[in-house]
Amino acid sequence: MTNYERKRLLEAYTDYVERRLSGVSGLIVILVGFSLATLSVTKISPGFNLVVMVCVLFFFLCVLLREFGNRKNSALWRVMRELEDKYKGKVDGGVILKEIRQYDIWEGFSPMVMGRLLPIIFSVLFCVYTLVEHLARAFSIW
Fold first, then answer.
1. In the chain, what's the furthest Cα-to-Cα distance?
2. Segment 67-81 mean pLDDT
3. How many other C-beta atoms lie within 10 A of the C-beta of residue 43?
4. How far apart, in Å, are the Cα atoms of 97 and each of 92, 112, 139?
5. Can you give the three-state secondary structure of 21-73, one letter per residue?
6. To which H or E segment does residue 79 belong?
7. pLDDT tens-digit profile of 87-139?
8. CA 142 to CA 135: how far, in whole Å?
9. Taking a C-beta distance cutoff of 8 angstroms, is the pair 63, 27 a contact?
């Protein structure tokens, strides 16, 4: 792969992460804020807090799924597909395809991708913990 192609791929990745994915990352603050607020409030019933958290998590997951569905509209997706088509079937194409797939933020598990997705993963896990906590309080499990 040429240096120009690497630069195009990196620019498309940076643009996607800093523009489109940052909108999702901004919602992390809201998700965690609602989780902490509903956990700390004691005057509102746990059942109501459970409903609030289900709604917030549902909204957040809908935004994530919408973004996952819109991946074909991104410059990163187009550059990756263009380069994959170019190097598919070449002699050293396997190494180059592996390098290209490191930038696949939707289906890849490279360290570069996981570093960007960890905050989203942890916020969803924290929200699920909050839901379990409210569920336990609502039904007096603990």
1. 67
2. 86
3. 4
4. 9, 16, 51
5. HHHHHHHHHHHHHHHHHHHHCCCCCHHHHHHHHHHHHHHHHHHHHHHHHCHHH
6. helix 75-87
7. 888 877 788 888 888 888 877 666 766 777 788 888 889 989 999 988 988 88
8. 10
9. yes
> For residues 105 and 9, what is the distance between their CA atoms, to the nearest angstrom?
12
Give mean pLDDT, residues 72-78.
87
Q: Give the integer Cα–Cα distance in Å for 100 and 87.
A: 10
**Distance linking the first and last C-alpha atoms of the chain:** 58
Measured between alpha carbons, how far is 60 from 28 in angstroms, rounded to an integer?
A: 8
CA distance linking residue 42 with residue 129, whole number of Å = 17
Residues 112 and 105: their CA atoms lie apart, in Å, by 9
Residue bearing the bigger pLDDT, 109 or 85 = 85
pLDDT of 109:
67
121 CB-near residues (< 8 Å, 6+ apart): none
* Type and span of the H or E element at 134: helix 111-138
Between residues 17 and 129, which one has the greater pLDDT?
A: 129
Comparing 15-24, 78-87, 132-141, the range with the smallest average pLDDT is 15-24
